[in-house]
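Proteins fold reproducibly. Look at a sample protein:
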Amino acid sequence: MRSSKPAQFSSFLGFMEQSIMIYAGNAIDCTIGVWFGLSTLTAAAFGNMISNFVGLATGGTVERLAMSVGLPSPGLTEAQRSLKVVHRVGFAGTLVGAMLGCALGMIHLFFIDTDKSAILKLQAITQEQEIAFEVECSNKVRNDATAISVRGPDVDGILASMTAALSASGYSVLELRGTHHKVRDDGGTDENGLFTMSNDGTYEDTFIVRPRGSTTQVPDDDLEELGHAILAACKDPLSSHSLKAQVQDLRADNEALIERVLWLEQALEEKQIKVERRDAS
């Protein structure tokens, strides 16, 4: 049964709106999202708004274009249009067509670099933010571990970058505390007694670390080198992505190597053991 509603257009409209949302959202995420620090979800919401506007503005045009190429008209009478079964079939056709069009529109995701915006946001750290970081390495806070305090602006990827730098340098993180230094008009301390570092607020992350496999502090002679490594991680949060990728590759190689060793051990045991069974007859 043919539908009284333009269900034949819903599939194309769904494909068009999905495509516009993907490309518009990705463009916003890689430009305005980088400039103003917007999240990917916010960029997707703006892309959806643009997609809806274009769909509403061009819906009639698409329908007329479809008619001009010879798509059949339902040809239902007024009495037939008022039937409940016609309404139900029309709604089902429109719904299935829209879902099919949206699903087809997701094919564009195979042609878009979905990681590009995250990399651009990590690269967007400014010179003012670079010089705003302060790193303090102390062996006076605890007798059995070293405390590393990092103060500076809140930048995406900083915490992951510092953690990756500590792991790559051979240190284990025992504790991690984060503090937001809130601003007060009098420039004093906030309600928790924390010292206000600047007029626009800063974040402080404190790591309690030890050399991997050790129960002692970081040697005093190594504190300065450790501080330089942490500061470099703050200035280049993008490096944590490459370190993470390297760790994942090593983990995959390690799993493959373990499987290979287990197979070789089993094959060797089978050759080392010889069993002769007495004939049952």
Q: What stands out?
A: DSSP finds ten helices and four strands in the chain. Strands lie at 134-138, 146-152, 171-181, 202-211.
